[in-house]
Amino acid sequence: MRRSSLLLCLAIFVAVRPGINSDVSAQTSEPPLALWPDKAPHANGESEKDQPAVWVYEASEPKTGTAVVICPGGGYAVHAVDHEGTQPARWFNRMGVTVFVLRYRLAPYRHPVPLLDAQRALRYVRHHAADYGLNTDRIGIMGFSAGGHLASTAATHFDNGDEDADDPVDRKSCRPDFVILGYPVVSFQDEVTHRGSVRNLLGNSPDEEQLNLLSNEMQVTKESPPAFLFHTAEDTAVPVENNLRYFAACRAAGVPAELHVFQHGQHGVGLANQHPALSGWISQAGNWLRQNGLLTSEPTQPLRGVVSVDGMNLPWGTVALKSANEHFPVGWSMVMRGKYSIPESAGILPGEYTASIVDMGDVQPQPTVPDAKPHSRTIKVQIEPGQETLNLEF
Question: What pTM did the predictor assign?
Answer without folding.
Answer: 0.90
